[in-house]
Amino acid sequence: MALLRPKHQRKRTKLRAYTTITCPHNGHQVGWCRSLCEPIDGQGDCGRVAPHSLVGRTQAAIASYKARSLKLGSDY
Known about the structure:
76 residues; mainly alpha; 21% helix; elongated
């Protein structure tokens, strides 16, 4: 009856943030991002979250201030 039992499905795990993988741009195994790729939707070419695509609180505030001043048409 062992032949009728379904095979055990292997559980896939996600890539850990500290795993060293090969960077597609400089060809070396790096543990951190060197900001060489152009991120798409926050993901780098290696598949990780690209830290250079993240916008901090201060950067977001400056961007919204500039957009608001352009919308109002004033020279702040």
